[in-house]
Amino acid sequence: MAENPTFTKCLMAIFFITRLASTLGKSKPWTGFLPPQIQTLDFARNLHVEPDAIKSVSSDYGNIVHENPAAVLYPSSIEDIRSLIKFSYNNYTPFTVAARGHGHSVGGQAMASNGVVVDMMSLRNHKNGTGITVSKCPSLGFYADVGGEQLWIDVLHSTMEHGFAPVSWTDYLYLSVGGTLSNAGISGTTFRYGPQISNVYEMDVVTGKGELVTCSSHTNSELFYAVLGGLGQFGIITRARIALEPAPKRVKWMRMLYSDFSAFTRDQERLISINGRKQKNALDYLEGSLLMAQGPPNNWRSSFFPSSDIPKIMSLVTQHAIIYCLEVAKYYDDGTRHTVDKDLQQLFKGLSFAAGFKYEKDVSFVDFLNRVRSGEQKLHSQGLWDVPHPWLNLFLPKSRILDFNKGVFHDLVLKRNITTGVVLFYPMNRKKWDDKMSAVIPEEDIFYTVGFLHSSGFNDWQAYDHQNKDILKFCDKAGIEIKQYLPRYSSNKEWINHFGSKWRNFRERKAQFDPKMMLSPGQRIFNDM
After folding, report:
1. CA separation for the pair 348, 495 (Å, rounded)
2. Cα dist from 59 to 96, 100, 274, whole Å
3. Distance between CA 261 and CA 415 in Å, rounded?
4. Which residues of 287-303 are buried (b: 16+ CB within 10 A; e: fewer)?
5. I need a surface site. Which of 177, 334, 401, 495 has the fewest CB within 10 A?
6. Considering the entire predicted model, what is its pTM?
7. Which residues are catalytic?
8. How far apart are CA 268 and CA 83, in angstroms?
């Protein structure tokens, strides 16, 4: 007998309504911001709307921006993520989706107001996540396939078991791989090895269309370059293939103090000019920072200086108002332990640091890379970690550093007298970055990163925020063409100015890979336009 199409459609409708009613009857109180059909899908078992779940993703390390999503997805597989995005993409009214790693954003960048936050850490509890696998092939040598949910500290430990390690790091290792690759991933290793985004061979990405795509510089290259430094706008990174090199065993770690800014930056630039990956006489790490009377020489990032020398260091600070600290490191192993000191002596010839203010430590490779951890644990124990962090991170062209030193460090920061946290200041080489990627940096061959890493109370973070805004106003008025790292803007005009010549390509890539503008709304690039 021929099948009756009308009868079949009625049966299907009854089945759907029955299943939906059954699901609703068993579910938690639902939200009006998401389509009710979402509860009938397989991943719905991992979708949570309870107050504790919502609260856990409604703030971040910055502790300044607070936004509630409609729900939180705790994925048990990459397929959960793909299905969620695909469902939203195909829906008449798409909802926004944001991937959250370890929650270390400082301005709500990983939030999704009334959308869905994907808690990537959940994948670490399931074997369906990518995990960390070390392999070798003739064309690449050794590499690690790493889930976007993995933390860099776990990448370090896992690769070290094989005698290898990545070469480019962030200062703090309890960050997710997907999170740092969505920005750039920088530290004192960047001058020589480039940012972390310059050390990726391949990725798996779930696009804004809900498609799982493998991409590299040779395959689906437009997506590859878009995602690296793309602020989460084009897809969620679920796997990255990371370059590895043989891991050293130990590190010579040194700090030298300067009272003269020009000598400090001149020496920094001279040291980063030796930057070939195979140059044995090159440093492996170089950063700089400021010491001022408001803050102690030893801070949460590391207690480096011997306590017996603190009085004379503070005397130097009192005398000059600002002291500039050059921090460098050189790795070594059994094969180079007899020559590392000689190499360093040769490198340091002619440096102009203050006599009697050179300090040195010899530590394991792992302890050096994980140097911030002990400070974090101390702040946790004192209840000082989960506080507001009104940070400001900038990239500054080399040609304007003298103006910045006078106009910001001396005429603004010193006079405000509120900066007690870490202030970083060190150079990078532009040639170590790939301009095809989405990350934005100054046009000059050498540029500096400036980081105001403030911590504050819940009632006074606005003072630091106002100072940050005044720093930006000074740069704008002085014509200093800065670029924000970990940027946060409030208008379309500011984003267009930030991306500059890259804006058109960035916008076209958005239309290609996330045409309904669902991903990472917390960045406020397209969603508030």
Report:
1. 42
2. 17, 11, 42
3. 18
4. bbbbbbeeeebbbbbbe
5. 334
6. 0.92
7. 104, 171, 287
8. 49
CB atoms closer than 10 angstroms to residue 72? 24
> In the chain, what is the straight-line distance between the N-terminal and C-terminal CA atoms, in Å?
57
Residue identified by tokens 């509630």 is 68
Residue with tokens 């630091």: 464
Q: Which helix (H) or strand (E) holds 24?
A: helix 5-26
Whether residue 151 contacts residue 106, with contact meaning beta carbons closer than 8 Å, is answered with: no
Answer yes or no: are the C-beta atoms of 360 and 254 closer than 8 Å. Answer: yes
Going by C-beta distance under 8 Å and a sequence separation of 6 or more, which residues neighbour residue 184?
A: 195, 196, 197, 229, 439, 485
Return the structure tokens found at 71.
């729900």
Q: Which two tokens stand for residue 252?
A: 């010579």
* Closest listed residue to residue 51, CA positions, set 73, 27, 63, 69: 69
Token pair of 384 as six digits: 């000082």
* pLDDT tens, N- to C-terminus, the chain (529 residues): 444 555 444 444 444 444 444 444 444 455 678 999 999 999 999 999 999 999 999 999 999 999 999 999 999 999 999 999 999 999 999 999 999 999 999 999 999 999 999 999 999 988 665 699 999 999 999 999 999 999 999 999 999 999 999 999 999 999 999 999 999 999 999 999 999 999 999 999 999 999 999 999 999 999 999 999 999 999 999 999 999 999 999 999 999 999 999 999 999 999 999 999 999 999 999 999 999 987 778 776 667 999 999 999 999 999 999 999 999 999 999 999 999 999 999 999 999 999 999 999 999 999 999 999 988 998 888 888 999 999 999 999 999 999 999 999 999 999 998 888 899 999 999 999 999 999 999 999 999 999 999 999 999 999 999 999 999 999 999 999 999 999 999 899 999 999 999 999 999 999 999 999 999 999 999 976 4
Supply angle C-alpha 452, 62, 489, rounded to 5. Answer: 75
Please tell me the distance from the alpha carbon of residue 185 to that of residue 171, in angstroms, as a whole number. 9
d(CA 396, CA 447): 6
| Cα–Cα distance for residue pair 264/291, rounded to 1 Å | 13
Copy the structure tokens of residue 436.
Answer: 């095809």
d(CA 307, CA 286): 23
In whole angstroms, what is the distance from residue 314 CA to residue 78 CA?
53
Token digits of residue 487? 């940027």
